[in-house]
Structures are given as C-alpha cells and as structure tokens.
Design brief:
By secondary structure, the chain is α/β, with parallel strands linked by helices. The protein is built from six helices and seven strands, in the order βαβββαββαβααα. Strand 2 (47-48) and strand 3 form a beta hairpin. Helix 2 packs across helix 3 and helix 5 runs antiparallel to helix 6 (189-196).
Length: 199
C-alpha cells in the first residue's frame, strides 16, 4: 500500500474489547480506549449500528481527508469477527483498509507496534476477525501490555485493570497509539513502522 491509495474509499478502524462497564478499564479493552479517542479527534460520537452488533462512529481525518469508520464490536472479544465482516460489507471496505487496534501480551507495557497481516498470537479477537474476513492481510496496531507477573493466567491478566503505575502513563500511551493508527491511514504501514516501531 502506498500513500496514494489511502484517499480512496473508507477505512475501518476496529477497537477490540469487551462490552460493559465491568470490562471498561481492562487491559483487554485498550482497543476501545483508542477508538474512543479517535472518535473525539474527528468530532464523532459512537452510536449503535443497525448493520452489525457494534458501536460505530464516522468522520474524516482532517478537512477533506480519508473517510473513517470507527467500530467497537459489542459481541464479546471471541466473536468480534462477525460484526467487523458485516461492517466491511456495508461500507464496502476492502481488507487492506481494515485496522485492528488491540492489546499485545508479547510486547512490554506501553510499546506500540504496527504490522500488516501475520498470525494472531493467540489473540481471540484477531482470530475471529481473520476467520470472518476470510484473510489476515489487514493492519494491526498492537499495544503492549506485557506478560502477567508470576504464574498468573494470561486470561485473567488481560481481563484485569491496568495497575496504578501503568495508569499514570496510560492516557499518553493511548494518544500515541491513536497517532500510529492515523499514520497507517495517511502514510501507510511501512512509514508507520519506520516512525514508531523503534520508539
């Protein structure tokens, strides 16, 4: 993908997470946090979609910029793919214009990485998306949450809230992650990797 292709057609940015107040501050819900921030940046508000089990907000990145569809699937994480596929069909979004924003156990806390395609690394939201979309060649913006301490089960760790120490930086890091997602749209995955993956 080069920057010239980015103005054509809408982009679908999917924040992965679980619905409900009890999950809102979980590590697993950082995708929702980034989606909320992006909606604020483009002056959009989330509303319940009639086309999919998802909350959706629409806007543009800058005056005359790329059209943006932000989505938070309202199924639980393991079933995220169905709503994403339905939104892709309705908005006519090609696979290469889909971005998944998600938590990543295999990165230290606060590191943000982006890539195009690849495996799901045991992430059930990504696994569901790849299955429902019929391919893996969509972009991922990965927010590092680190590995659980001691012998804590990773499944329990991702469904726990960020620690007090982590929360001190969380707002800044979510903002940075939103920057990475915007860069993928406006400049391409390779540019975003060069600009952010070494940081």
């Amino acid at each position: 993908m080069d920057a010239d292709t980015h103005a054509a057609g809408p982009w679908l940015v999917v924040g992965l997470g679980n619905p409900g107040k009890g999950y809102a501050r979980n590590r697993h819900n950082v995708g929702f946090m980034v989606a909320d921030l992006l909606a604020g940046r483009v002056g959009a508000k989330f509303g319940r979609s009639r086309r999919a089990v998802a909350a959706v907000a629409e806007g543009r990145l800058g005056l005359g910029g790329p059209r943006l569809v932000l989505a938070k699937p309202l199924t639980y994480m393991n079933l995220s793919g169905g709503p994403v596929a339905a939104l892709c069909q309705f908005y006519k979004v090609p696979l290469e214009h889909v971005i998944a924003v998600h938590d990543e156990l295999d990165l230290p806390y606060g590191q943000v990485r982006t890539k195009l395609g690849g495996g799901e690394g045991g992430h059930n939201g990504l696994r569901s998306m790849s299955k429902s979309l019929g391919g893996k060649q969509y972009a991922r913006v990965r927010f590092g949450i680190g590995r659980p301490p001691g012998r804590q089960d990773p499944a329990d760790f991702v469904l726990s809230d960020f620690s007090a120490a982590e929360r001190k930086e969380l707002e800044f890091l979510v903002d940075r992650t939103a920057d990475v997602a915007e860069a993928v749209i406006t400049k391409g995955v390779a540019w975003a990797q060069n600009a952010y993956n070494g940081a």
